[in-house]
Amino acid sequence: MVSRHIYWQLIFRIVLISAAALGSGFLFFDEQYVLSGLVFGLLVLQTVFLIRYVNQTNRKIAYFFDAIKNEDFTLRFPEKLSVKSLEELNHSLNMLNAMIQDVHLKKQAQEQYYQEILKQADIGILTINEKGHILYANPTVEKLLNHHPLNHIKQLRQVDEKLYAIFTDLKPFESKTFQLTNEREKTQLTLKSTSITAEGQTLLLVVVQDIHKELDEKETDSWFKLIRVLTHEIMNTITPITSISESVLKYFKTDGRTLTPEEFAEHHVKSTVKGLEVIKEQGNDLMDFVQSYRSFLNVPEPDKSLVSARDLFEKVKLLLGEARVVEDMDKSPIDIQIIIDPEDLELFIDVKQITQVLLNLGKNAQQALHSQREAVRQSKAPPKGTHGQIKFLAGIGDAGKKVIKVWDNGPGIPPEQQDEIFVPFFTTKNTGTGIGLSLSKQIMRLHGGSIQVASKKNTVFTLTFE
Question: Is the pTM of this model over 0.85?
């Protein structure tokens, strides 16, 4: 509406100027010089009014944008004027000013809200420009890095030269750890960085976190799990020994006195022999348990060499086939598949240790499939359409690291047990020591890699190598 009124005002004034110019020229050539001079004066006057009108509008708009640029929202234009178009223009500018002011206030409130969140965050956050200037640092990061205020990464030299070197060489999407030591305590820090763009300049956003507490909690939790499993296994072995010992002792003592050989019955001798045999068996089981614990602690450093993934899988497949025949697990076959991409993939590993890991995972898969079939047969339910399958897959992962996956279509691992299966001596089977998966995790750790499990519809163990 405003632009339309200004448009018509300009057209009207230009028409008047054009008419005055034509009239002045006509009267001049008609030799009516006096009237021509009067019309020419009117022409000059109309031109001056037009220039003043345009300049007045431009100055108002310029004042308006200067005020917005300087965040001055007190500027107000008069809305009661004789010229209707200027009055509407002033009204529109005042409305726009009020709207921008409202948006600015909301933006400030939102910025204060986010600033308060960053201040209260348990992790340290700071942004660094290309020249090393720290544009923002929340109180947590100043506390973690033991320096206040933080304005430039050179200040970190006063804290620790190595810490300064880390920040100097820190690149986007890197993750580093650093132990900061001062006169009060030691702090284990993890630094993660990412690149962001703000106001046309590239900044490095760094997140600093104290992981010492988290590590302590995980270590404590691991100890609780291990102690719980150890207590369970030891109690299962010691309880029968104690019970049988008490029963045998009753054969030799009565009313607080020891029986003489003449008073000792023959069936007591037979029962004592049986009891001692059970005690011996339980003692041997306890010794085996302790021996498995020693083997877990004494895993040698890997003797690595380049090994063909195809040869490794073929060897494991052959050993799994022999194990199935020896253990007489199930007469129905289990399909074992090998998938490698690229076909000529090689792994830098200790072939004996990784073979042991894959053989353990393969046996677990076989036993899970066997248990599933037994459960189906006992329930007399109709057999499933799919037969038992185990897949050994090798390839290159998303991060460019070499991976091995052991897949099976067995019953899966319950979610509540997926965090427990790597705990030493934890087992859900009636046989075995529960050392296999924890030993596999130890072997992968010594290889600089990791082992993870995902079990929903199917079970997949993923071995990732550095």
Answer: no
Q: pLDDT tens digit string along 126-144?
A: 999 988 899 888 888 888 8
CA distance 42 to 38: 6
Report if residue 434 sits inside a domain: yes
Question: And the tokens for 208?
Answer: 């600093």
3-state DSSP call for residue 432?
coil
Whose structure tokens read 């299962």?
Answer: 236
- The pair of structure tokens assigned to 403 is 């991976």
For 349-383, the pLDDT digits (tens) are: 999 999 989 998 998 888 888 877 777 677 655 55
Residue located via tokens 């009891």: 275
- Which domain, by its residues, includes 154? 122-210
For helices 309-327 and 351-379, give the axis angle rounded to 10 degrees.
40
Same domain as 275, residue 352 = no
State the Cα–Cα distance between residues 155 and 138, nearest whole angstrom.
Answer: 16
Domain count, the chain: 4
User: Distance from first CA to last CA of the chain, Å, rounded?
Assistant: 69
List all residues 6 or more positions away from 111 whose beta carbon is below 8 Å from its beta carbon. Answer: none
| Residue where a domain stops, chosen among 297, 313, 330 | 297
Q: Are both 70 and 127 inside the same structural domain? A: no
User: Are 105 and 150 contained in the same domain?
Assistant: no
DSSP tag of 32? -
CB 97 within 8 A of CB 60: no
Tokens coding 262:
């003449």
Cβ-contact 286, 258 below 8 angstroms: no
From CA 150, how far away is CA 154, in angstroms rounded? Answer: 9
Domain boundary among 248, 281, 297: 297
Per the domain annotation, does 341 fall within a domain?
A: yes
| CATH, residue 154 | 3.30.450.20
The helix-helix angle for 84-120 and 33-69 (nearest 10°) equals 10
Amino acid at 21: A
SS3 465: strand
Which among 80, 75, 56, 54 has a CA at the least distance from the CA of 64? 75
